[in-house]
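Structural prep section.
Before we set up the soaks we want a predicted structure of the protein with zinc ion in place, mainly to decide which crystallisation condition to try first. Input record follows.
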Amino acid sequence: MPDVFSKKKRSWIMGRVKSENTRPEMRVRRRLHALGFRFRLHRADLPGKPDLTLPKYKTVIFVHGCFWHGHPGCKHADLPASNREYWVKKIGRNVARDAKNRALLEERGWRVLVLWECRIRTAEGLEGELGPLVASGLTPPALS
Ligand SMILES: [Zn+2]
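Run finished without errors. Recording the tokens verbatim:
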């Protein structure tokens, strides 16, 4: 079966759906660690097995690949023209699952932060996305 995706598109798609320890995720980990945050990875006892959990700040972080998680309005989330119905359903299920997990986490008092792959590709982008976390009173000891 020929690949319905362009090479560039394919690399975004391989980003992740359920896979762990992806490159974008590693960048987030390294940066947060450097900022002094301590966290746990892929806690199976929490809905959606968040990529990072910061227990001290009652915050979980998901690093989402744009394609698989249906980043709204993002060009990397465009679905292929062929087999469209299949993709609409598949991505729709992922989006619904993400929303459900988010609701469950928030019910339990967790603050949920979603980092989209396209926004954290550069150091500036990553800094911008993490800014609210650092600014909202979640200042780790190393910075205070
Ligand atoms: Zn995106």
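Observations: Residues 66, 71, 74, 76-77, 116, 118 surround zinc ion (CB under 6 Å).
Flagged for discussion at group meeting.
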